[in-house]
Amino acid sequence: MSRSGFRVWRWDGSGIVPHRGGVPLDDRGFRYGQHLFESIAVRNSVPLLLKEHLTTLRHSAKEKGIPFSKSMEAALRAIDAGKKLPDGMLRIYLTAGPGSPVSPIRMPALYVTWESTHFPTEKELEVGMALRILKKPFSEAGWGLKTGNYEQHLLALEEARSAGADEGVVLDAKERVVSCAMGNLLVWLPSRSGTSVITPPRSRGARSGVVLGWTRSHARVLERDLRPSDLRLAVAMAVTNSRLGVMPVTTCAGKKLPEPSLALTLAHGYLRAHGLLGNA
């Protein structure tokens, strides 16, 4: 299948080849949502943090019991070779393939799509985004895995957007922060040494996050529980995901954050590390 601004490939048993059909209706990824996915930003023909995304996919596949062969991974590592992909989002879907709901997974399927995408400009990074703390608690079970069952993430995003915000902060039943609807959360809190950068612990359901992983290697990020009262004390925040990179937050729950430049500096560092500053 192919259309302007959208391309599709599949694993044929030996390599990644163009795909002109759809997903078979007997594929459990379609029938039961039994698939995993990774979203990868392509900038200047380079899939950003590709190795890290494939590592995440491998770990998720092991957790969910979907075979992900070394030959599949090797083919995906070379997905950009000779394709010269324009800027956009590359998405990898690893499905359980055909079979009954609980039968062993013998023939996993692999699909790759590319679609044109808008990435935040430097001006949009300066403007930042508005967060809303969502009132409805969400179950943290499985929240951090990118699977075919993404309804709860979409409902969380819809709740935030319907209230006029760009993103929502997801809480569990005990009012602990899990993450944002479609990304990880970074929070700058006052400390004795100035400020500390905090992210919710993965044990609460937050995804490991490839872009979050990049921030951990470029800033001292601590994992600890966060509650709405902590967010009200924050001096800066950012949302991270593959499309946004590091997106500064300027308001949370209607309150303007006093030092959004802290997050903007990290956002610029992410762009600079990938040769994108001035191209965002």
What does this structure look like?
It is a single chain. This protein is an alpha+beta fold and about 280 residues long. It folds into 2 domains: about 110 residues, D-amino Acid Aminotransferase, Chain A, domain 1 (2-Layer Sandwich), CATH 3.30.470.10; about 150 residues, Alpha-Beta Barrel (D-amino Acid Aminotransferase, Chain A, domain 2). The chain has 8 helices and 15 strands. The strands form 2 sheets. Strands 7, 8, 9, 10, 11, 12, 13, 14 and 15 form a 9-stranded mixed beta sheet that branches. A 6-stranded antiparallel beta sheet has the order 2-1-6-5-3-4. Strand 14 and strand 15 form a beta hairpin. The longest helix is centred in the first third of the chain and has 15 residues. About 40% of the residues are buried.
SSE blueprint:
Elements: E1 6-11, E2 16-18, H1 28-31, E3 35-43, E4 46-47, H2 50-64, H3 70-77, E5 88-95, E6 109-115, H4 122-127, E7 129-133, H5 151-162, E8 167-171, E9 177-180, E10 184-191, E11 194-199, H6 210-216, E12 221-223, H7 228-231, E13 236-241, E14 245-252, E15 255-256, H8 261-273
Parallel strand pairs: 7-8, 7-14, 11-12
Antiparallel strand pairs: 1-2, 1-6, 3-4, 3-5, 5-6, 8-9, 10-11, 10-13, 13-14, 14-15
In short:
This protein has helices at 28-31, 50-64, 70-77, 122-127, 151-162, 210-216, 228-231, 261-273; strands spanning 6-11, 16-18, 35-43, 46-47, 88-95, 109-115, 129-133, 167-171, 177-180, 184-191, 194-199, 221-223, 236-241, 245-252, 255-256. It has eight helices and 15 strands.
